[in-house]
Amino acid sequence: MKKTIAAIAITLALAGSAFAQEPTYEQTQKWVVDKISTNAGSGDVYSTTYEQVSMDNCSLNFTKVSFLARFTTIPASTTIYAEVVPLAKIISVEIVSSNAIQHPSNKEYRVILHATDKEIKDDVTDKDEQGNISSKKVWVGDKTSIVFGNHSDTDADMAARMHKALSHAVDLCKKNPPKEVF
After folding, report:
1. DSSP assignments along 122-175, one per residue
2. Helix axes 155-175 and 25-39, enclosed angle (nearest 10)
3. Which of 14, 63, 157, 165 could form a disulfide with 52 if both were Cys (CB 3.0 to 4.6 A apart)?
4. Does residue 66 contact residue 47 with C-beta atoms inside 8 Å?
5. For residues 28, 50, 112 and 147, what is the CA-based torsion angle, rounded to 10 degrees?
6. How many Cβ atoms are within 10 Å of 169's Cβ, its own excluded?
7. Tell me, what's the pLDDT at 134?
8. In this predicted structure, what is the pLDDT of residue 157?
9. Cα first-last separation, the chain
10. CA Rg, the chain, in Å?
11. Residue 12, number of CB atoms within 10 A of its CB
12. Does the pTM of the predicted model rise above 0.90?
């Protein structure tokens, strides 16, 4: 009798796990956008923030603003990267940690997305110390990153969770790529 009950319990547990649902694209999208908007960034030599984050139609879009503080010989400057990352073209997602430049005891964690080819588009705008545009260019490459370095007690965990979420989004986008309108 005990063996029968144990067998039924194991069967039900296995059946329950077969019905466990992975997060949908919409759930993943909402989580990724929220966490990049509220948790990503760093505040070392370069202060980096993320704005205008979206993840529609299997494309991760964000504006990364990097501000370089004034040093003795280098004037302050701001670089704005408007990035478009086609998730179905990503071949790997990894996490890399490094020591912050100005405060080496602080860690920064980068979630790096690698594309199959030069699939990631960046509109780059450089501004001088007065906020005047000093250059504009378009960059196309095969990788980008999202940095976590503002909250030393949670950055490693947040980077690991972002890695998992973006890997899941990439898998979903490869299984069901966005359909063209016509």
Report:
1. EEEEEE-TTS-EEEEEEEEESEEEEEEES-TTTHHHHHHHHHHHHHHHHHHHHH
2. 150
3. 63
4. yes
5. -110
6. 23
7. 86
8. 94
9. 62
10. 21
11. 10
12. no
